[in-house]
Design brief:
The complex is a heterodimer of chains A (about 60) and B (about 800).
Chain A lengths: L1 E6 L2 E5 L12 H6 L4 H19 L4 H4 L2
Antiparallel strand pairs in A: 1-2
Chain B lengths: L2 E6 L10 H14 L3 E4 L9 H17 L3 E4 L3 H4 L14 H6 L4 H9 L9 H4 L1 H5 L2 H13 L10 E2 L6 E5 L22 H12 L7 E5 L26 H10 L4 E4 L6 E7 L7 E7 L13 E8 L5 E8 L14 E5 L2 H15 L2 E12 L5 E12 L5 E8 L5 E2 L5 E2 L9 E8 L12 E9 L9 E10 L6 H6 L12 E7 L4 E9 L10 E7 L6 E2 L7 E2 L5 E3 L1 H7 L3 E4 L4 E7 L6 E7 L7 H19 L6 H18 L8 E9 L4 E9 L12 E2 L3 H9 L3 E4 L26 E8 L14 E9 L4 H7 L3 H27 L3
Parallel strand pairs in B: 1-2, 2-3, 5-6, 6-7, 7-9, 13-22
Antiparallel strand pairs in B: 1-10, 4-5, 8-9, 10-11, 11-12, 13-14, 14-20, 15-19, 16-20, 17-20, 18-19, 21-29, 22-28, 23-26, 23-29, 24-25, 27-28, 30-31, 30-35, 31-32, 33-34, 34-35
Helix pairs in contact in B: 5-8, 14-18, 15-18, 17-18
Classes of the chains: A alpha+beta (about 60), B alpha+beta (about 800).
Chain lengths: ~60, ~800
C-alpha cells in the first residue's frame, strides 16, 4: 500500500500493487486472526464474484449446488 | 458599457464646405452610435452669426438624432474673420453668444423672416438671395442680430449625463500675448484666467471618472508631416502656452486630448515621467477637417474613440474625401485603428486610485496551498503598507469560503517575526445574504482585522504576515462539483474552482501563488481579471481604513486586463507552484486563478448501479426491520472480525464498527448499520457526516483508507466528526479510527477507483489507541497485512448486504 502524507500526522493509503487488491486476501489472514469461518466464506464468495466479473464466468458461489 | 465618442473638427461651413460629404459623414456616425459627439472647433469658415446659428442647429439636431451629447469648443475661424488671430482682426463674440445661450428667438427670426432652413445648408450661405429683397434683408438681419442674447459662457468642466466621463472644454482662441505681432496669424492661447479657474474646479472633484477628456481647438503637441504651405507652417498656428496646458492635463490626470486646427489627423501618446509617481500617460488625438473640400479622396478625417469599461482607449481614424465617404474599414490609407498599451491604461487607473485612497502598499503576497484532502492553507504577507491618515486604522481582511468549507479558527495567526510593528489581530465571523436556514454554511465569511497605529503607517510603512486555513475548501473532482450543484445551477463555470484576491487599495505589486497537491497536478489554471459592474465607482470602507468596499458586487470578466496580465501567470517548476506576479494591479479588481475540476468519463452502467445500491442501503437504514437476517449476521461477522484484528485487547475498550453510505441528496454520509461494543442501544440513523468531513467523509472524498490516532494525528483538517448522540452513553470519545471506502465490485480492484463507484465507508473506531491502527499509520508490515485483510473483508460483507437486499426489496 502506498502511504500518502497529508501533513501534521495525517496519512492515507491507496493500493500500490497487485497484492493490495481486495481480492488478494490470503486464507492465512483469516487463520492468523482467528476470524470465523462464516466471515471467511463470505470473503471467498466475494473473491469468486470478482473473478467471475473479470472473466465473464458465472461466480462459483452460484454454481456450488 | 463601453463609451463611444465621435470626434469631428474643422467643418468650415462656408464657401468650400462639401454638403454631400457632410451627409455621408452623418450617416456613418449614425452607424457608429456614439454617446458623445465632439466637435473641436472651426464649425464655420467665417464667424457670421447666421452661419454659427446654422451650425449650432445642425449639430444639435444631429446629436439628438443619434442620441449623443454634443460637446463643442471654438476654433479660430469661429471667432476671427478668416481665422486670423493675430491682431489683424477683432475677436468676435458671436460664437459664445450663440453656442452657449438659448437662441430660440434668433432661430425664429431667421426661419420665419428669412425663410431659412437653419442647417448646414447652401441657402444659409447666401441669405440675401434667399430672402429676395435686399432692402428688406438689411432690416431683418438687424432684427436677427439683435435677437441673439448678449453674453454666453461655456462651462469649463462638464459631466455628460450618459457616460462616466469628465470633460474639460478649453477655449484656445484668445489672442496670444506673443502673437500681437501680426506674424502670429492663427496662433492661439488658453487664457490664464481660464486655466486658473479650470485648475480650481478640477481640484474640487472627488467623484471617480473612467476617463478625463480635454477638448481644445489648437494642438498641444506639434503636428508632424504638416510643414505645408507657409501659412500652415510653424510658428503661425501653434498654441503659444501648450506646455502650461499640458502640465495642467498631467497634473489633473487627463487621459485623452481631442483637438483639430491643422486639418492633419494625428494620434500620439505622451508618457510624461514614465518611471515617476507623478507621471501620467496621455493620448492626444487630432482630427482632420470633417467636410471641407480638399480635392483629395483621403483629404478629410474623423475619429471614433471607444473607451472600454476599464478605461482603455482605442481610436479608429477614417480617411475620406472627394468621391468617397468615411467607412470603418479599408486599407491603411482609409482606415487605421490605434490601440493604446494596456499597461498605460493600468497605470492611469492606478494614478486615479491614488487620488481616492489615502493608503497604498508596496507588495501583497498571498500564497495558497491545497492539500490532498482539499484543505486550503493561506499565507498573506503585506509589505510597506503606508497611509496618509491622521489616526490609527483597522485593516480589514475578508475571507470568503466555499459553501461546504469551514474556517479552521485556531489556524489564524499573525506571524510575529514578520511584523515591523506590534499589531493586534481580531477575528470575526461574518455571513452574507446568501446564508440561510436551509444551508447555514452557504456564503460564510470570516473577517479579521489588524489594528495599526498612525506611526506604523509612516516611512517605510507597516509590514505583517498572517496565516489562516480553511478545510474542505475546494472540490477535488468534477464528480464533487456535480454533487454539490443541481442541473439548474450549472451555469458557465459550475465545474471550476478558483483562488482570488481583490485589490482594495493602490498596490505596487501583487504576488499570488498556488500549489496543487499531486492528485491535482494535471490541472492547468488560468488567470481571470474581474471588475465590479459599477467600476470605476465604488465606496471606500466605512471603517475609515482607506480600502475600497467591494462587498456584494456583481463581477464581470475583463478580457483585456486578463490578456494584459496573463503572461505574468506562470508555472514555477522549481517550487512546483503557479505564480502570478503583477505590477500595478487594477484597484477595485478581483484577480482570480481558475481551474477546472479533474474529471473522468463515468461508466454509466456502474454509476447507475452504485446509485441504486446506495439508495437501497439508505432505504434499509430508514426501516431497520427490512434488513434480511443474513445481512445482519454478515455485518455481525464483520464487526467481530474487525474487533479481532484491531482491538487492543483491553477490557475497558469501547469499539464501534459502522457502515456509512453516501447520500447524494445531502452530499453526506449516513450510517446504515452500526455495532457498538458497549451498548445495544441503536444509534440514531438520522445523523450525517458531510462529504470531506470526519474520517469517513475524508476517506470517501479521497477514496483512500484513512487511519487516525489522537496521539499521532494533529491535523485540524482531518479529525473525527462529532456524534452528538443523546446522552453520555452515546458520547464516547474515539482515540483511534480506521475508515475504509467501499467500491462497486467491478471497480474495487482498481488502485484509486472513481468517486461515482464508491458506495460508502466502513469505519472501525476504538476508545483506546489501537496498536494495529498506529501500526498502519507507521506502515508496519503486520498492520498493513491487517489493513489489506480488513478492507477485503469489508468489501465482501458490503457486497453480501447488497446482494441480500437485491433479493429482498425493502
Amino acid at each position: 500500500m502506498r502511504r500518502i502524507d497529508l501533513g501534521e500526522g495525517a496519512v492515507a493509503f491507496e493500493p500500490d500493487s497487485a497484492a493490495d487488491r481486495v481480492d488478494q486476501v490470503s486464507d492465512e489472514f483469516f487463520k492468523r486472526y482467528n476470524i470465523s469461518e462464516e466471515a471467511a466464506e463470505l470473503y471467498r464468495r466475494y473473491r469468486s464474484a470478482i473473478e467471475a466479473a473479470a472473466t465473464g464466468a458465472r461466480p462459483k458461489a452460484d454454481v456450488k449446488d | 458599457m463601453a463609451i463611444r465618442l465621435a470626434h469631428l473638427s474643422d467643418l468650415h461651413f462656408g464657401r468650400k464646405f462639401d454638403f454631400g460629404l457632410w451627409s455621408a459623414v452623418k450617416a456613418e456616425i449614425k452607424r457608429f452610435d456614439p454617446d458623445l459627439l465632439v466637435v473641436s472647433g472651426d464649425m464655420v469658415d467665417e464667424p457670421e452669426p447666421l452661419h454659427l446659428l446654422a451650425a449650432k442647429c445642425e449639430l444639435r439636431s444631429f446629436a439628438e438624432d443619434v442620441a449623443a451629447e454634443l460637446v463643442v469648443v471654438p476654433g479660430n475661424h469661429d471667432v476671427f474673420a478668416s481665422g486670423l488671430a493675430s491682431g489683424l482682426s477683432q475677436r468676435q463674440d458671436w460664437f459664445d453668444r450663440i453656442f452657449f445661450n438659448d437662441t430660440a428667438e434668433a432661430e425664429r427670426v431667421a426661419e420665419e423672416e428669412f425663410g431659412l432652413r437653419l442647417r448646414l445648408d447652401p441657402s444659409v450661405l447666401n441669405p440675401k438671395r434667399a430672402a429676395g429683397l435686399f432692402k428688406k434683408v438689411i432690416g431683418v438681419e438687424d432684427d436677427f442680430r439683435s435677437s441673439i442674447p448678449a453674453r454666453g459662457e461655456q462651462d469649463l468642466v462638464r459631466r455628460p449625463a450618459n457616460c462616466d466621463v469628465l470633460l474639460a472644454q478649453l477655449d484656445s482662441t484668445r489672442v496670444p500675448t506673443a502673437a500681437l505681432d501680426p506674424i502670429g496669424l492663427a496662433t492661439g492661447e488658453v487664457d490664464k484666467a481660464d486655466l486658473a479657474a479650470l485648475r480650481e474646479e478640477l481640484s474640487k472633484i472627488s467623484q471617480p471618472y473612467l476617463v478625463r477628456i480635454a477638448v481644445i481647438h489648437h494642438h498641444v503637441l506639434p503636428i508632424a508631416f504638416s510643414g505645408g504651405r507657409w501659412l500652415g507652417a510653424e510658428p503661425f498656428m501653434v498654441l503659444s502656452n501648450a506646455g502650461t496646458v499640458l502640465s495642467l492635463f498631467k497634473e489633473h490626470h487627463f487621459d485623452l486630448v481631442l483637438h483639430g486646427h491643422k486639418h492633419v489627423p494625428q494620434y500620439s501618446r505622451i508618457d510624461l515621467m514614465p518611471q515617476h509617481e507623478a507621471g501620467y500617460p496621455i493620448a492626444v488625438l487630432a482630427a482632420g477637417s470633417a467636410a471641407l473640400q480638399t480635392g483629395s479622396a483621403t483629404g478629410n478625417c474623423l475619429n471614433y474613440v471607444t473607451i472600454s469599461e476599464n478605461g482603455h482607449i482605442e481610436v479608429e481614424a477614417c480617411y475620406y474625401g472627394a468621391g468617397s465617404g468615411p467607412t470603418r474599414s479599408g486599407g491603411p490609407d482609409r482606415y487605421v485603428r490605434y490601440s493604446e498599451s494596456l499597461v498605460s491604461a493600468k497605470r492611469r487607473a492606478l494614478r486615479r486610485a491614488e487620488e481616492r485612497h489615502p493608503i497604498r502598499c508596496r507588495c501583497r503576497e498571498l500564497a495558497c496551498e491545497i492539500t490532498e484532502s482539499g484543505d486550503l492553507q493561506f499565507d498573506l504577507t503585506i509589505k510597506g503598507f503606508r497611509g496618509d491618515v491622521r489616526r490609527s486604522i483597522l485593516r480589514e481582511h475578508r475571507v470568503g469560503l466555499a459553501d461546504d468549507s469551514w474556517f479552521v479558527d485556531d489556524r489564524l495567526e499573525v506571524v510575529r517575526d514578520n511584523c515591523s510593528h506590534d499589531v493586534k489581530l481580531e477575528l470575526q465571523v461574518e455571513r452574507d445574504a446568501g446564508a440561510g436556514a436551509d444551508n447555514p454554511r452557504k456564503g460564510q465569511k470570516r473577517r479579521f482585522t489588524i489594528a495599526a497605529s498612525e506611526e506604523a503607517l509612516r516611512g517605510d510603512g507597516l509590514s505583517y504576515r498572517v496565516r489562516w486555513a480553511c478545510a474542505n475548501g475546494t472540490n477535488l473532482t468534477r464528480w464533487e462539483a456535480e454533487e454539490r450543484t443541481t442541473a439548474e445551477d450549472r451555469a458557465d463555470g459550475w465545474d471550476e474552482e478558483w483562488l482570488s484576491d481583490t485589490i482594495t487599495h493602490p498596490l505596487d505589486r501583487l504576488l499570488l501563488t498556488l500549489k496543487f497537491p499531486p492528485s491535482l497536478a494535471a490541472c492547468r489554471p488560468v488567470l481571470e481579471c474581474r471588475r465590479p459592474s459599477s467600476y470605476p465607482a465604488y465606496e471606500l470602507s466605512q471603517t475609515g481604513s482607506g480600502d475600497a468596499d467591494l462587498r456584494d458586487k456583481e463581477w464581470l470578466k475583463d478580457d483585456k486586463i486578463t490578456e494584459c496580465d496573463k503572461d505574468q501567470f506562470q508555472y514555477d517548476p522549481v517550487n512546483g507552484l503557479w505564480r502570478l506576479d503583477v505590477a500595478d494591479p487594477m484597484v477595485g479588481y478581483n484577480y482570480r486563478i481558475v481551474w477546472k475540476t479533474v474529471g473522468e468519463l463515468a461508466d454509466i452502467e456502474i454509476k447507475t448501479e452504485v446509485a441504486q445500491q446506495r439508495e437501497m442501503l439508505l432505504g434499509a437504514a430508514r426501516d431497520p426491520r427490512s434488513w434480511p437476517q443474513p445481512s445482519l449476521k454478515a455485518f455481525d461477522e464483520l464487526a467481530n472480525a474487525l474487533g479481532t484484528v484491531f482491538a487492543s485487547g483491553v477490557a475497558r475498550e469501547k469499539r464501534i464498527v459502522e457502515f456509512m453510505v453516501y447520500d447524494s441528496a445531502g452530499v453526506s454520509l449516513r450510517p446504515v448499520l452500526t455495532r457498538r461494543s458497549w451498548t445495544e442501544k441503536p444509534v440514531k440513523y438520522d445523523y450525517q457526516v458531510p462529504l470531506g468531513r470526519g474520517l469517513a467523509g475524508a476517506a470517501f472524498q479521497q477514496r483512500r483508507d484513512m487511519p487516525w490516532a489522537k496521539s499521532h494525528t494533529h491535523s485540524p483538517f482531518i479529525k473525527p466528526y462529532p456524534y452528538e448522540g443523546e446522552d453520555d452513553e452515546d458520547r464516547v470519545e474515539l482515540k483511534s479510527i480506521l475508515a475504509m471506502p467501499i467500491f462497486h465490485i467491478k471497480q474495487a480492484s482498481l488502485k484509486r477507483p472513481p468517486p461515482w463507484s464508491c458506495l460508502g465507508v466502513v469505519l472501525f473506531g476504538s476508545s483506546l489507541e489501537a496498536r494495529a491502527i498506529l501500526g498502519i499509520i507507521q506502515k508496519k508490515k503486520k498492520s498493513m497485512e491487517a489493513l489489506r485483510g480488513a478492507r477485503g473483508l469489508a468489501h465482501a460483507v458490503v457486497d453480501s448486504l447488497v446482494k441480500d437486499l437485491e433479493g429482498h426489496p425493502s
